[in-house]
Design goal:
By secondary structure, the chain is mainly alpha-helical. It contains eleven helices and no strands.
C-alpha cells in the first residue's frame, strides 16, 4: 500500500500514555477544512483527503465506542468496528448536503458497532428480531438509573418513548435479568471473557487503545479495503 495512505502508527501520537488528556490526536478540522477535503474526495476521489477526514474523526469513534463498554466486549474491537463505519460514511459523504461529517457518520459508526455486538455477545441472542434488537439497546439505556424491576407504569413510559408495546418492554427486561446471571465470575482464566472485562479495573480507555499497534494495523487494512477497492 502506498505509504501516503497508511493510517498512523503509535509513533504518530504522543509517547505519554499516562495522561490521556495530553495525548495528541490528529487535529479537529474546521468546517471549511472538512468541506474542502470532502469536496476533493467527492469530486476527485482523493484518497489523501479521505485519510485526513478519517483521522480527524478517530476521537469521535472512540467517544461513541466508549458508550458500549457495558456490553462486555473489548474496547479495541469496538473502536475498530466503529472505524469501519466511519470509513463507510466518509466514502458516501456528500459535502453539498450542508451537514457536518460527524452528524452524518454517527449512524454508520453505531450501525457497525451494533452489528459487532450482536455477532459477538452471547447474551444478546435473546433479541432475535429487528424490533427486539432496537429495544435491547434502548432498554439498557432507559434503565440506566433504575435499580429495580420495572413496574407497569415505568414499562408504559419506556414503551411510549420507544414506540413499542409495554409487553415488549417487560419481556425484554425479563430476558436481560435472566441472562445477567451468566456474568458471575467463573474459574475461566480467559481475561477476555465478559465477566473478567467488566470487573477489570485496569482496562485501558478507548483513547489509550487507539495508540495500540494492533489497532493501527487493523485500521490500515480496513482503509485499503474501503477506499482502494
Amino acid at each position: 500500500m502506498n505509504q501516503d495512505f497508511a493510517l498512523p502508527t503509535t509513533q504518530t501520537f504522543s509517547a505519554n500514555t499516562q495522561d490521556v488528556s495530553v495525548q495528541k490526536y490528529p487535529p479537529i478540522l474546521s468546517a471549511q477544512e472538512e468541506h474542502d477535503l470532502a469536496v476533493e474526495l467527492y469530486e476527485n476521489h482523493d484518497l489523501s483527503a479521505a485519510r485526513k477526514l478519517v483521522l480527524s474523526h478517530i476521537r469521535f469513534v472512540a467517544f461513541i465506542a466508549h458508550g458500549y463498554k457495558g456490553y462486555g466486549l473489548e474496547q479495541a474491537d469496538l473502536i475498530q468496528e466503529g472505524t469501519i463505519g466511519l470509513m463507510k460514511a466518509v466514502k458516501k459523504f456528500n459535502p453539498y448536503k450542508n451537514v457536518r461529517l460527524a452528524s452524518y457518520a454517527v449512524y454508520w459508526i453505531r450501525a457497525e458497532i451494533h452489528e459487532f455486538v450482536f455477532k459477538n455477545w452471547k447474551i444478546v441472542k435473546v433479541a432475535t428480531t429487528k424490533a427486539q434488537r432496537k429495544l435491547f439497546f434502548k432498554l439498557k439505556k432507559a434503565k440506566a438509573n433504575i435499580y429495580q424491576s420495572l413496574n407497569e407504569k415505568q414499562a408504559q413510559e419506556i414503551a411510549d418513548e420507544l414506540g413499542v408495546r409495554p409487553k415488549d418492554v417487560l419481556e425484554m427486561e425479563s430476558r436481560l435479568q435472566f441472562n445477567d446471571v451468566t456474568f458471575e465470575i467463573s474459574n475461566d482464566e480467559d481475561n477476555s471473557a465478559p465477566e473478567r472485562y467488566l470487573t477489570n479495573t485496569n482496562t485501558k480507555t478507548p483513547e489509550q487503545l487507539l495508540l495500540s499497534d494492533d489497532t493501527q494495523k487493523h485500521n490500515n487494512s480496513n482503509f485499503t479495503k474501503h477506499f482502494l477497492h
